[in-house]
Recover the amino acids of this structure.
């Protein structure tokens, strides 16, 4: 267990951005959903219980160390593979004709990198926490997946403290994949890094949720680098990285503010939201993990990805690790496991059966004169479903 740190008083906050949302039941979930729809983000408090946060944080730190060794081994295997291709080419053979066994979905090392979650099994069990999963399913689809895991996302103390005015004003505005317009910065030497990006203007649809898991040791505050966000920016057709959009991605934006919340909480945001890292003015590293939840139809493992080990085209979860996950966590990762079929989940199948049963009497034709196409708003539609 980590010993208690002597934390700065400015790291202690009496509130978080989750303040005001009722706790418990459907009202709590609806509060998070309303915040996501209107502001573009929400914060779910104490997803990891306070008494468990230290243990989870220490397991993540250990997982990072193991991943560093994994990445080195994977790199050595890839170098060996490339050398064999080069040797074949020098002998006059076509390197593309070399017999290299590769499974279709998902490929294993060295054709893919070990998913970060494979070294973070203790942390993984919280990814299906009922509130988090309920919000993800309501915003995205009842069949959701985790398409990206980055365990090396801590906020380190800024080396030059105290910060001057220019440093305090500095931002790095962007939106997250699949709405990151740089597509993770491909270049002519490494074109494979390109992971694709949704083209502007973005569709008025939440396609993916970025989540930041705050593992302490201190609560998240503006002083120790709480994320900068611009409320409502997910509804703006412009983007800080949009060519010709006239936004200085390095400067403050009116309406911006910083996230705050207790350790063990999860910040969830629509990937369209404009946000920026903030500089940690404290003396302590603040540990965090970043994951993306996505619907089944969003391609998340075919093109380039970035995570704690560097850049990888694809990731995989070993079958023996997957077998140790709880059933609900397995549903989030089975698309990354060799030999496991990722079929549409039961809730989606139930909806399909409901759609089939809507026509009780195929010989009866009803009057649709009450229907005006395009007249009902999404909010009216949601309310009608709630009444039913």
């Amino acid at each position: 267990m980590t010993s208690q740190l002597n934390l700065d008083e400015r790291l202690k906050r009496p509130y978080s951005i989750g303040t005001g949302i009722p706790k418990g039941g459907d009202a709590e979930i609806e509060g998070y959903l309303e915040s996501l729809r209107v502001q573009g983000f929400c914060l779910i408090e104490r997803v990891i219980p306070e008494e468990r946060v230290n243990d989870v944080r220490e397991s993540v730190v250990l997982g990072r160390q193991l991943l560093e060794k994994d990445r080195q081994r994977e790199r050595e295997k890839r170098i060996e593979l490339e050398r064999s291709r080069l040797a074949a080419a020098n002998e006059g053979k076509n390197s593309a004709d070399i017999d290299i066994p590769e499974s279709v979905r998902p490929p294993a090392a060295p054709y893919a990198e070990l998913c970060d979650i494979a070294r973070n099994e203790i942390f993984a069990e919280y990814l299906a926490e009922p509130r988090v999963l309920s919000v993800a399913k309501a915003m995205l689809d009842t069949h959701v997946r985790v398409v990206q895991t980055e365990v090396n996302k801590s906020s380190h103390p800024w080396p030059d403290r105290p910060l001057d005015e220019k440093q305090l004003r500095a931002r790095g505005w962007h939106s997250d994949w699949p709405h990151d317009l740089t597509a993770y910065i491909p270049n002519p030497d490494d074109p494979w890094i390109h992971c694709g990006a949704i083209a502007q203007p973005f569709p008025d649809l939440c396609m993916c949720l970025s989540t930041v898991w705050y593992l302490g040791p201190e609560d998240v505050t503006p002083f120790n680098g709480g994320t900068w966000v611009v409320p409502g920016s997910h509804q703006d057709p412009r983007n800080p990285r949009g060519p010709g959009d006239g936004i200085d991605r390095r400067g403050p934006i009116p309406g911006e503010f910083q996230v705050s919340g207790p350790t063990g909480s999860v910040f969830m945001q629509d990937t369209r939201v404009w946000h920026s890292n903030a500089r940690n003015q404290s003396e302590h590293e603040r540990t965090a993990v970043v994951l993306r939840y996505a619907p089944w139809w969003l391609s998340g493992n075919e093109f380039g990805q970035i995570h704690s080990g560097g850049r990888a085209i694809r990731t995989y979860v070993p079958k023996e690790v997957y077998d140790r996950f709880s059933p609900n966590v397995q549903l989030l990762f089975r698309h990354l496991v060799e030999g496991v079929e990722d079929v549409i989940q039961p809730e989606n199948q139930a909806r399909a059966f409901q759609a089939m049963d809507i026509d009780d009497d195929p010989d009866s034709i009803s009057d649709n004169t009450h229907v005006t196409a395009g007249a009902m708003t999404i909010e009216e539609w949601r309310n009608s479903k709630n009444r039913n």
